[in-house]
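Hi W., the calcium ion complex you wanted:
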Amino acid sequence: MAEQTVVVVEDEENLLAALQYNLERDGYRVCTAIDGAKGLELIRENAPNVVILDVMLPGLNGFDMCRILRRETDVPILMLTAKGEEVDRVVGLELGADDYVTKPFSMRELLARVRALLRRPRLVKSGASPEAPHEVLRAGDLEIDLSAHTVNLRGAPVVLKPREFDLLALLVSNKGRAMTRDAVLERIWGHDYIGDTRTVDVHIRWLREKVEATPSAPKRIITIRGVGYRFLG
Ligand code: CA
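Structure:
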């Protein structure tokens, strides 16, 4: 497999050195920056496979970077947040980050998250090549074939509209994680979509009718009051 590149932007130099050491030991090519402007430059030059961004950075912070990057690239972004920055977590994800870890974290955990991001199927908008292996997400008796754009429930096909399919794939690939309505709206409908988060609620309702045994008492797609949704399994 070709060497994969990770760009790390972190202003705590000891942590940055530790991240670089561990990522390199895991076989990645690592490019580092200690501020946002240099980080953006590195990302644009190196087209990395994963980007790791600290939230609090001098000058351009991790959120600013995330917002800018999402207009340019689909690269998986892992945010490093300081302890207690609960709001940061949500905001980070709303900005289009893919995952976060809270400091202090273990290198083992961080490396596992990086590997997971590299494995996670991207929501490819264009058709994959016919030779490509099918990427299938499974959750209990639900099977989502991302390449064929088909869904099976207990072995029987489920017919979904394109947006429903994208929404289900997004929820399942973020299994167990709370997704805010805004984050879902941005990821599925795009940031230039003119509409509101009720669009998300409506599609969730349709989706429940198709994948829940009892749509009025959902066991898979759970509502988190005031926040959004979580896919349980
Ligand atoms: Ca920092």
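The radius of gyration is 18 Å.

W.
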